[in-house]
Amino acid sequence: MSASDRQRWNEKYARRPAATICEADEWLIVAHDTIAQTTPDVTTAGRALDLACGLGHNSIWLAQNGWHVDGVDISAEGLNQAEHLATATDTVVNWIEADLDDWQPKPESYDLAVVFRFLDRATVPRIVNTGLKPGGWLIYETFAASELDRPHSHIRNPAFTLSPGELRRLFADFEIVNFREETLEDRNVQRLLARRRW
Ligand SMILES: C[S@@+](CC[C@H](N)C(=O)[O-])C[C@H]1O[C@@H](n2cnc3c(N)ncnc32)[C@H](O)[C@@H]1O
Predict the structure, then answer these.
(1) For ligand 1, what atom is nearest to the CA of residue 54?
(2) Best of 15, 70, 103, 118 to mutate for ligand 1, by most ligand atoms within 8 A of CB?
(3) CA distances for 190 relative to 58, 63, 93, 172, angstroms
């Protein structure tokens, strides 16, 4: 990631009106229900990692639901706004400003990794494979290539979209608990719930 990309995200977040409400992504809530039913103990004291967390809505939701959360993003501006939102709701998240290209998680330290609207085929699998404990969970959603055909899509670069079935192939060594390609009202995505094998 170049310095200009960092600047681009900082400028983008600075231009937006600060968020005052915080809603988690639907797929996070749905997939989290499965985790809570399968391994209820981790959802009360587990460690979670939100990669490219942006304004932190999913990190905050996880923290409010019992997780100790590290939210990592390259944008200081995004993380500042995320911290304001967390403080306003009395929520504690450990925000980490870092370029994921270089960032190394502590090996086998997380029970859950979540990724939304971010695709870096080299970086994300490396971090998830290293950082998750055996049996740790992955919740992932990002744009499918069919998103490019939607008339008003803001996604322009095909490299940031997934070919059919790609998300499950990126985590082929994982136990795939749920994989879906979904055409939603506002976007086309792939959704994955998977588990690192023991
Ligand atoms: C489309 S936003 C998604 C943010 C959040 N996950 C969400 O769903 O709202 C992509 C995020 O990736 C972050 N990002 C881009 N490249 C990055 C990198 N190399 N390391 C860390 N964060 C990065 C940007 O700052 C931005 O917050």
Answers:
(1) 27
(2) 118
(3) 17, 25, 27, 15
Backbone conformation region of residue 89, classed left if phi is above 0, alpha if psi is from -120 to 50, else beta: alpha
Residue 105 in contact with ligand 1 by CB distance below 6 A: no
- Asked if 97 and 73 count as a contact pair (C-beta separation under 8 A), the reply is yes
Q: Is 143 in the pocket of ligand 1 (CB under 6 A)?
A: no
Predicted model pTM: 0.97
User: By the 8 A CB rule, do 197 and 160 touch?
Assistant: no
Which is it for the CA torsion 105, 107, 112, 118, positive or negative? positive
* Cα–Cα distance measured from residue 196 to residue 108, given in angstroms and rounded to the nearest whole number: 10
One-letter amino acid of 130: T
Ligand 1 centroid distance, CA of 131 (Å) = 18
Let me know: does 190 contact 167? Beta carbons within 8 Å: yes
Number of domains in the chain: 1
Write out pLDDT tens, residues 74-112: 999 999 999 999 999 999 999 999 999 999 999 999 999
Q: Quick check: is 17 in a domain?
A: no
Question: Has residue 15 been placed in a domain?
Answer: no
| CATH number of the domain bearing residue 169 | 3.40.50.150
Q: Which amino acid is at 162?
A: L
